[in-house]
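Lecture 7, part B: from sequences to assemblies.

Below are the input chains for today's worked example.
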Amino acid sequence: MNYLTRRLVTFPLVMLGVSILVFVSIRLVPGDAITAMLGTEAGLLTPDQRAALEAYFGIDQGWLVQYGRWLAGALQGDLGISVTYGKPVLDVILERFPLTLELALLSMAIALLVGLPAGVFAATRNERSSDLVVRILAMIGQSTPNFVVGLLIIFVLSVGFGVLPVMGTFTPFFENPLQNLGQMILPAITLGFAFAASVTRISRSAMLDVLSEDYVRTARSKGVPALGVIWRHALPNALIPVVTLSGVEFGYLLGGAVIVEQIFALPGLGRMVLDAILQRDYALVQGSVLFIALNFMIVNLIVDLTYALLDPRIRLGDR
Amino acid sequence: MGLPFFQTGAARRIASGVALAAMLGAATLTAPVAAATLRMAWSQDATGLDPHKQTAFSSIRLLELIYEPLVRLDSDLTIIPALAQSWEFAEDGKTLTFKLDPDAKFQNGEKVTSADVKASFERLMAEETGAAARANFLSIASIDTPDETTAVFNLSQPDVPILTAMTSINAAVVPASEIASGGIGTKAIGSGPFKLESWEPNAKEVLSANKDWAGGTVSVDGIDISVLPDETAILAALRTKQVDFALINDPLVATLVPNEASLTLDRTPVLNYHVLQLNPSRSPMTELGVRQAISCAIDRQDVLDTALLGEGKVAGPLTMPAYATDPAELFCYERDVEKAKQLLADAGHAEGFSATVIAATGEPPTAAAEAQVIQSQLAEIGIKLDIKMMELNVYIDTWLKGDFDMAVALNGGRADPYSMYNRYWTKDGNLQKVANYIDDTLDDLMQKGRVETDPAKRKEIFAAFEKHLAEMSPWVWLYTSYIYTAQQQNVDGFVATPTGSLFGLSAVTIK
Amino acid sequence: MTPLLSVRDLHVGFGRDPAAHEIVRGVSFDLDAGETLAIVGESGSGKSVTALSINRLIDFGGGRITRGAIDLRRADGGVIDLAAAPERALTKIRGGEIGMIFQEPMTSLNPVLTIGEQIEESFRLHRGLTGRQATAAAKDALDRVRIPDAARRLKYTPHQLSGGMLQRVMIATALSCNPRLLIADEPTTALDVTVQAQIMALLAELKRETGMAMIFITHDIGLVAGIADKVMVMQAGEAVEQGALDAVLDTPQHPYTRHLLGAVPHFEAGRAARSDYRRPEPPVAPPALTVEGLTVRFPVTGGLLRRRTGNVHAVDGVDFDLMPGETLAIVGESGSGKSTTARAILGLVQPTRGAFAANANTRESGNRAPVQMVFQNPYASLNPRLRVDSILAEPVIAAGGRLSAETTARMTMLLERVGLPLDSLQRYPHEFSGGQRQRLCIARALMLNPSVVVLDEAVSALDVSVQAKVLELLVDLQKEFGLAYLFVSHDMAVVERIAHRIAVLYAGQIVEIGDARSVLSAPRHSYTKQLIAAVPSIDRRHETFALDLRQVPSLIRPLGFEPEEAAWQRFGADHLARAEG
Amino acid sequence: MSLLRAILAHPSGRIGGVIVGVYLLIALLGLLGMTPHDPLMQFRVDRLHAPDAVYWMGTDLFGRDVASRLMLGISQSFVVAFASVALAATAGTVLGLAAAWFGKGWDGLIMRVMDVLLAFPAILLALLIIAVVGPGTWTSVAAIAIVYTPIFTRVVRGPALSLKTRDFVDAARTFGSSRHYILTRHLMLNLVAPLTVQVTLALAWALLTEAGLSFLGLGTQPPASSLGLMLSDSRNLIEMAPWLLIFPGLAIMIGILGFNLLGDALRDILDPKMRRAAA
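Predicted structure of the full complex, as structure tokens:
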């Protein structure tokens, strides 16, 4: 597909841009790996000691040399070694990624399972009281910061009910799916809350648009019953904005949900990058931001492919 | 005080709890098996495994469970044996001899020998290691190893505090073989009570008991440490019995622990001190009167009551019980706004001035609150403070450069006054640039204290030092706080030390 | 015997208080089986609302039947009042007993479902057919509307077919379950005139085959002559006149019917052509506009590297000239290149080749913009966020002028000339009706006193009676300012009223050009003949059209392709036609 | 004025308009210092005082009046939200217009740069900016603005591209109108509607983002107050002083609700496509 190849060609360009941006910005931040490791004690180092440590962390060269070295490695798939983890950056990322992916998938599933039917329902009840209730709920969902939702969930469950999923020791899905889901469900709900609200709102307005289209009138004129009109004729046409929104949100979620990961103590990408920034683990910050950006672009690509799947005009057109 | 605003009847609470647990899946209930593994949580993880390089409290707490120094401090800050069974200063104070525990073994099975001690200290002293603690050991001229269990430190000058410095895990003895192979920092092979089985930074550690530990018998099978970055989550985990033992930093969270009948909160006063650092090289803090005015204008107890909910003790510069003076005897520890105004006016700043105070975000958790109370208190004498919060590393960078008017800080304390303060208040102290204050009296007292071996005389010297320091007010010392450990009823035997060490976990039992 | 459909005192309203906002106010009519009723009216007359009320689709458009009855005799002989029927009963009737087709075939089919799926659905719903049976039935339905290669087309999605084809698919769908009543709501308005003729022919043929009744809604009274048995004329929600076709067309009673029949342009095969101008021979003045060998090609790219694989020959070697005071109409169907020609002359498209020269109006000096344009859609060609004074001032400012008293004076003069109130200057476009907006566009085009005005489908978007008035205005302005018009249109009836000369464009080339009366009354080129034959007329009653399934040739040519040099045949003083091979 | 009337006639516009209006009033009062108490005054004897007649919404850890701080917080949050959205909208408009108008290479370049910003995890971008410059009101503004610029660029570029092909732009070209005239009169004026809608919705998002940044300690700095900072400061005090969470929480929710309702109404009013659906 022509359009696809053009998108693929811009991939490396954008990635290069991202890598330069992250490289420069992380180095503009005061403090380095040495102060991150030694804290105020770093002041006790003699100049020779400091030089030795800079060489150890690979920050003794100029930026350009560092970037060149890093880029050369990255092109060969070597993102460098994380100083905090003492492991190749890619290994560290790939250890954290499954959780982030699962969390993103679960939140999206919740958002779509709740938001889509709610939005469609509201659209068919346009301007009636049930529509208003759904809309108000959706707006409240959209206007509550997710840390408030997360903290309230934890608080209500632990104080009010005395139960809480195991926090801290995270169980991978394939080790014990039940326990894993038990751990993931609350963060997923926290993230899915606002996500579902957005899906509700966008699917409602898209459905309203579609329901006023000529072909819906045609379907009705053929005697298609109300449910058939909604699910078979209208919904597939209303999905594109929903896919767009879900794609963007999902893409962001793949970058890690810093706040929710922090509250629920999940070892995901978001916290990893946050910690990497705080600990000045340059290689890890660079590698993971690049990884996240790549994911984001792949998700966008998938979204575009989904458009083609949904809409034959895009599938067969020579866009 | 606690008023849980979702109060429910006990019966309903249990019933709904069960229902909810079922809903969330059986997995959410904590394992009922009385495992002998201690489940523990903390909010800040270690940042590395090299005992000679890591200086953050969070790293030291972990490494103290794995590595051992030659000597360590007990809960009264008395020096007690660790790897060394005994030690002795020579008459001239220039030779220090250690006798090692012949049973001590590293976790790789090798015996701990005097060669390891020599190699460890040589590594520590080498510039390319980049060990911050090197500054404390500059007086070591050479190390002799007459036999496997004897290590002799030859000092270039009498140095009493060096023994206290050796209690730090930053002076841990590591296997010479690991030094040679370059494995320090990537693996953790110590001689301590626990072995590090796995470490996932910022997520969790798994420790197992070291059966061969020469220092005693560890009664738990191991420790699973979870990193829960949000301390409210730690509290929630304690409430739902997911963890047996937790370390808490934030007094706001800690004070909630006793509300839960099944939990015990232990608070131990620590040597670390909360302080408002002034920069005496910056006008108008160059004026003694201005600094003293600030000291007089601050109501230390009020800051403590507000920012830490009273969780701490107003303290002078010397926080170790053996040397501490009653704060009431120190300069202006009773707030005196009138005097402050007078001092300020005498210094030519009757109408006050503006300054910026820096503080680190979340380190300590109470920093922002302290800054705000101080801001409000100083406003009363016309000093307008501008608070600048900084991410920790940015703060450290700024702090090390001495690039601030004032700084809210939580600085580390030591069991020995000299080790604690020589870096700031001697003329060639490594952090003299941070303190930015040169005072012959302080320098002189420091040097005297360093070489004096008679405890009573030392105490006298440092009492004079403390009094002078408080009066000169280069900094405004506020108070010391607590380290908090919370534990379930089934945990027993933990003893905390004022250094904040969790070494006491080696003696913990689980019922 | 009761009629198939009997509508009594139908009232339909909209909004929160439907009774207070009635769009249809007391319409009654009867329709027998096999009969065709044409409902004629302009926009806002309530004709579509009436149609949508019959199968109660109006419920979904925010309307409510406030009064009246719609009695339908069902297949089993029972009578149901559709106005009061529950939705459940209605879904059985819609598609099963009443079929419907709509104005816009391009938007009336679901873009994400294949043609086959959409036709099969009707069989599934009303006949209970599934799987292979339904597919076979769908294929038969497509065959029935004369779609070639039906089996393959079933797998197409709507965007792969042309408008005319889609309207056939719509008809196939609507008729799939042999409804006894078909409602056709302006089914040909969006289509080209030759396609319209074919759809009309198809509908007539199918009606004969099935014996169904039909309600045909249109704004074009000329169109109904060929198909209707009865006519109902609607105005402002009321049926002002109804009766048998001939009676209504020949002896209209109501003034509005007379207006529709008289004042509105109807095609009269050249008889109504203008006779107020004749080309002086030899020419006394240089032409206002000369176009020579105008060629516009758009690249077609393909493959991974987006290499140029061919060209769309949108306009291919067009020559003509236009004298001051003269109107040249360029007619053609969609895709013929007529709009591209106009746009190229205005510099909106870059011509590949060719030259054109415009001469300034000789009567006044200081003229810097000899050619101006009026666009088709008056709603789109005025910036909705600008006030009328800014809109009219724009050409002056663009030409480097300033908002002087002189400019304002010209604005007021032109507003008055195009028949708009003087306070218009302080108003925004949305405060005007479509016809008024087109007058604004004309005034704007005249601000710089051009010698040539290009009118691109300038009256096509307007209601029929408004069309007539704007055409009158154009003729008056032409005389007053000595304007030359290049009038681009697909509507032969309109062209007849305004053109002095006509150029017929087909596939990017002029196939016939000459004096309007001559071209319209005696077309020479086969395409022109076909085009003129397809134009509906009130004179051609109960006429059947032959179905013609030819497709317009593709305009995509390989790289390097050049059309043959045209050979022209002369018919009379001013009438040329391209020789056909 | 007719827009105001249209908003008030629209059911959700009325609610949203009233909420936003009341908040603007509160923000103004907050900025003018017309609060029940001094929002910075620490009544330390009344620390963590439950709501009563004196302290309508209770006091915080320092004994500051929550109601007064809430007013200050609303004004602070509004300043951050309005300033960042204004910056992002301006930058996005310029870039989007440039991309749409110049097309080809410029379009490619601008949109690729926007892709870079979009692909860069937003909160991390904000974090890095804040880490470099240091946290504070104006840094939050800059960070949020940079995160939103690509979104506005897209919002402007799409309609600008389609406006570029509209008849009235074609008409302007036939007159020979200058680029400047076409850009300002024909494109910009018609972009006001989609921009207004997007701005209103972005304001809601900016309030949320500010709250998120404050939670990570990167937003507004003490002792100033913002809704997000109040919320995040309350997190460890939920049990002791629930009013510290409840009031700012409600304030932020209702505020965002107001912006969202107003945005929806504006979309209905300004977007002719929706007007058709509503008719």
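Note for the exam: The mean pLDDT of chain A is 86. Keep this in mind when comparing with the next example.
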